[in-house]
């Protein structure tokens, strides 16, 4: 049975230091389209061990390694931090229990004009099929995917239906829910589509349940350390910074202690629930740091759902479910 650590979702997620208990080797996961490590931090805090990760963006790779090598040195020492996942032989990926992946969202987002699959000039929309390829080869017990909420209704629902059909065709259940960062302790809405599935389980028979929202006890005034005009912040985005406070496009400007304030990377780190001590590499440009934050995941929301996934796997193990 997998070991699930008890935790308080309203507490900051801390990187394990040398005095912390060793990471449990009972549960292994892979971190695809890893960005700056949001999935890794969340699953690591639950006691799981990352055995493979991939991220193609060179700037995000530097940030990921700087912050995660101290807690997952074996991942890097063994050469299991890959770049372009499409160039990786799936048979060479280590065995794992959970496949995690926040596959590129721009083709399905408002900002990306919702182009979706098979757009000739934007291959990012086809990265889902890399997930399908790896699931087919490695057959982990579960998957946990994340994307923008617009994926749910993209192309009148046909895109999500394709994803569901592909994954159910591999013998997995397919459950999904739009989850907000503010549902799990962070003062920004950031609605994202979470997709979860389990090998050898039919969707209509699954007993998996996404965690219920929790009371919000952290607000933007806490992020800034001063009174703020908004209790819950705007969703962090990629690009488009600097609009006026009254501009409908504004997402990074706030009135703090009576003065206009633009989000800084320090603010964004707190708003995403990244661990205390998280840092960008020296000389990372402001725009690059904010881009990486805008592409990240809300760590406490991922952690809460990850805990529910582990609990479901434990229950299935207790029932001796044969997943083949």
Describe the structure.
By secondary structure, the chain is α/β, with parallel strands linked by helices. The protein has two domains: 28-215 and 298-318, Rossmann fold (3-Layer(aba) Sandwich), CATH 3.40.50.150; 220-293, DNA Methylase, subunit A, domain 2 (DNA Methylase, Chain A, domain 2, Alpha-Beta Complex). Helix content is 27%, strand content 14%. It has helices at 38-45, 58-68, 73-77, 128-138, 158-169, 220-224, 265-271, 286-294, 299-318, and strands spanning 28-32, 49-54, 81-82, 98-101, 142-148, 175-179, 192-198, 253-256, 259-262. The strands form two sheets. It has a seven-stranded mixed β-sheet. The longest helix is centred in the C-terminal third of the chain and has 20 residues, at 299-318. The radius of gyration is 19 Å and the shape is globular.
In short:
With 324 residues, the chain is α/β, with parallel strands linked by helices. The chain has helices at 38-45, 58-68, 73-77, 128-138, 158-169, 220-224, 265-271, 286-294, 299-318; strands at residues 28-32, 49-54, 81-82, 98-101, 142-148, 175-179, 192-198, 253-256, 259-262.
């Amino acid at each position: 049975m997998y070991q699930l650590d008890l935790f308080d979702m309203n507490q900051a997620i801390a990187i394990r230091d040398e005095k912390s208990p060793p990471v449990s080797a009972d549960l292994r996961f892979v971190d695809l389209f890893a960005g700056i490590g949001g999935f890794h931090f969340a699953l690591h805090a639950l006691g799981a061990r990352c055995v493979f990760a991939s991220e193609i963006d060179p700037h995000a790779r530097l940030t990921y390694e700087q912050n995660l090598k101290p807690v997952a040195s074996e991942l890097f020492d063994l050469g299991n931090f890959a770049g372009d996942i499409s160039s990786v032989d799936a048979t060479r990926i280590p065995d794992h229990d959970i496949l995690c992946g926040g596959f590129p969202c721009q083709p399905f987002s408002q900002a990306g004009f919702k182009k979706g699959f098979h757009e000739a000039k934007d291959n990012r929309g086809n990265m889902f099929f890399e997930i399908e390829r790896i699931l087919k080869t490695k057959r982990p017990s579960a998957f946990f995917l994340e994307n923008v909420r617009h994926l749910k209704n993209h192309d009148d629902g046909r895109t999500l239906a394709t994803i569901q059909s592909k994954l159910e065709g591999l013998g997995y259940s397919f459950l999904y829910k739009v989850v907000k960062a503010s549902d799990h302790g962070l003062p920004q809405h950031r609605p994202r589509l979470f997709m979860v599935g389990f090998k050898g389980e039919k969707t209509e028979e699954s007993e998996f349940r996404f965690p219920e929202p929790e009371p919000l006890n952290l607000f933007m005034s806490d992020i800034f350390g001063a009174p703020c005009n908004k209790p819950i912040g705007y969703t962090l985005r990629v690009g488009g910074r600097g609009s006026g406070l009254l501009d409908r496009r504004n997402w990074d400007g706030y009135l703090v202690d009576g003065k206009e304030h633009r989000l800084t990377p320090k603010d964004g780190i707190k708003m995403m629930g990244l661990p205390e001590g998280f840092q960008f590499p020296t000389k990372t440009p402001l725009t690059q740091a904010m881009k990486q934050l805008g592409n990240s995941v809300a760590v406490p929301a991922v952690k809460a759902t990850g805990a529910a996934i582990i609990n479901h796997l434990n229950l299935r193990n207790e029932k001796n479910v044969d997943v083949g």
